[in-house]
Amino acid sequence: MASGLHISISAEPIAHIGSLVISNSIFTSLIVSFIIISLAIAVKLQSKETNRPKGLQNVFEWIVESLENLVSSVTNNKQKTREFFPFVATFFLFILFNNLLGLFPGVGSIGFLKNENGTTNAYLVPSQSKIESSKVQAAQVTVDGETIKEIDKNTSNDKIDSKAETEHDPEFVPYLRSGTADLNTTLALGIISIVLTQYFGLKYLGLSYLKKYFNFSNPIMFFVGILELVSEFAKIISFAFRLFGNLFAGEVLLAVIAFIGSNWLFFAPMPFYGMEIFVGFIQALVFAMLSLVFFNMATQGHDNH
Amino acid sequence: MPENFAIAFVMGMGAIGPGIGIGLLVSKALEAIGRNPEATGKIQTNMILGLAFAEAIAIYALVVALILKFV
């Protein structure tokens, strides 16, 4: 049954620059960064000071304003809002764009086949049945004549080989994979968030912030300090797994529903796509909101509450 | 086959707690909306935020199940 279902829990390498491995999720994250940066530059270039902003400027003013209202509703402090807002907004936008880009057609379904002979470029995700797969192979997208020949050779080889040894099927590797559906990305985001929390705590409370972790006044407070220290690392893990789990589970869900209904119910994944768009938005909001609450908690003294 | 049973068991046990939690959360939120319909927007936002936390626990179980299945 698992012949056509392509599920990989980790990102796969698609290119190497020296010893640096470019995986498909890094590639997608770079595309997302490029989109966000170019949008920001475009808005900056065409924005004017008016009372009636139009088009792109209007949309971005709305986004920035609602995010700023969110931040200031938690902090209730103008200076803190100015400092937290860039990080919270970046978390939100980066995660949201990554989540939504993962739902685009072609992400995770166009890639290359890797086997011992080499790689075959521009290959669609293998379908579930043998008859279907030959049709897909005939209709696949190719750029130049050379790859077409190579694919023909490979497919004819595959047909002979598949009866003899099904174990050595070529491995399918997609070009694009949602950046947040990779544990490395979400772990990096979690670490950034927690390190920033410590930074803001030290900045606002000075060295007395460290009393939260190292308190020798009495044995109970000393033990509580150790627990606080452990809970900071638990926060990183919880951040990373929450985002990764939600997004990866969504990808698996879509793949499985598409796999079950591919012969006669090709519209079956549609409601689940709607749900995934919602989940992508909510998870971006949850990540940004939690970071914001942690930043705010770190800047409040222990005696104040 | 025993491995598959273990995977299904992990997911099933992991879904009990969040299921109860989500039920409690939504029932209380609906009660609150019924008492004070003007606060619907605020209650809904906080409810969805809480749902995301409750759901995350089931997601942990799902991650364990997926790792057992595919790694």
Please provide a written account of the structure.
The complex is a heterodimer of chains A (305) and B (71). With 305 residues, chain A is mainly α. Chain A has 8 helices and 5 strands. In chain A, the strands form 2 sheets. A 3-stranded antiparallel beta sheet of chain A has the order 4-3-5. Chain A has a two-stranded antiparallel sheet with strand order 1-2. Chain A is globular, with a radius of gyration of 24 Å. About 12% of the residues of chain A have low confidence. Chain B has 71 residues and is an all-alpha fold. Helix content of chain B is 92%, strand content 0%. The longest helix of chain B has 34 residues. The radius of gyration of chain B is 16 Å and the shape is elongated. The model of chain B has no long low-confidence stretch (mean pLDDT 88).
**Counting H and I runs of at least 4 residues, what is the number of helices of chain B?**
2
How far apart are the termini of chain B?
Answer: 16 Å
* Helical/strand content category of chain B: mainly alpha
Rounded to the nearest angstrom, the radius of gyration of chain A is: 24 Å
Name the biggest interface: A-B, 17 and 14 residues
Residue fraction in strands of chain A: 5-15%
